[in-house]
Specification:
The chain is an all-alpha fold and 261 residues long. 79% of the residues lie in helices and 0% in strands. It is built from twelve helices and no strands. Helix 2 runs parallel beside helix 6, helix 4 packs antiparallel against helix 9 and helix 6 packs across helix 7. The radius of gyration is 19 Å and the shape is elongated. The mean pLDDT is 83.
Length: 261
């Protein structure tokens, strides 16, 4: 078998293992799906009057706020991906793998492929629920494909950060401690209001420098604006930068961790 074929086999096997392990833990899957939808329902019902503000981009707060669910789903990918990898470290599974011909890139790619698959499943569920309750993408079916691609890239970025902290600390508890920090980044973004309608100066400044804002706005643009090249470029650019940083740090941490093993 060629090196490329062997790499593909290794990645496929580890991705399958990652997906199966996640599906066998309903306590991890259910909150990642239900919690964002519950917050979507509560906030859409409670903040509907915001659409009456002059300059608000849509008459449906559901259309505006649904982008939040995709971001929160990616944050759950951070938690689940990192916790599972930390468990592999604590049980010695990673140490045993280091004694096999498995390539480091296969381990990382397989693990993150599983996380991305679950992230895309979550994104499809969020989108289906949104469409069922009246969300209509201005970009049509092509917009759905782009939205899922962006959601997958965002999931990859956050999941790679979760993997880095798992490899760096070897502790599932340390990874779980990141969730509140990342959740704060969501709230300090343009999640509830467009940045131009945020009246508090310090909040608007933080939201402007917060890359999460641009990922949310890229998803939102596909739903309520149509093809906004600037919003999409910024959203994909921030997601790609996040994934690059996360993958680089994870690769370095994995090399160090396997070196210890």
């Amino acid at each position: 078998m060629t090196p490329g074929g062997m790499l593909a086999v290794q990645v496929k096997a580890l991705a399958r293992r990652s997906i199966r392990r996640t599906l066998r833990q309903p306590a991890s899957v259910a909150p990642a799906i239900l919690f964002p939808l519950l917050l979507l329902a509560v906030n859409t019902g409670g903040l509907r009057a915001i659409t009456q503000l002059p300059g608000f981009p849509t008459s449906s707060y559901l259309d505006f706020f649904i982008a939040f669910t995709f971001m929160q789903g990616a944050l759950f990918a951070t938690l689940n991906s990192g916790t599972d990898l930390a468990r592999d470290i604590q049980t010695g599974f990673l140490s045993r793998l280091s004694l096999t011909p498995l390539r480091r890139i296969s381990l990382l790619a397989g693990h993150l492929s599983g996380a991305m698959f679950m992230g895309l499943v979550q994104a499809l569920i969020y989108l289906s629920v949104g469409v069922a309750f009246g969300v209509r993408l201005e970009t049509g079916f092509a917009g759905v494909i782009v939205l899922l691609a962006l959601a997958g890239l965002v999931t990859l970025g956050f999941a790679s950060l979760g993997s880095f902290f798992a490899l760096r600390t070897g502790s599932g508890e340390a990874v779980q401690g990141l969730f509140p920090l990342f959740f704060v980044l969501l709230f300090l973004s343009s999640m509830y209001l467009p940045r131009n309608l945020i009246s508090t100066d310090w909040f608007r400044e933080i939201a402007t420098y917060n890359p999460v804002s641009y990922m949310i706005e890229a998803i939102r643009s596909l739903i309520i604006e149509g093809w906004n090249a600037e919003a999409l470029a910024l959203g994909f650019g921030c997601a790609a930068a996040l994934a690059t940083v996360g993958l680089t740090l994870s690769s370095i941490a994995l090399r160090t961790r396997l070196g210890r093993a």
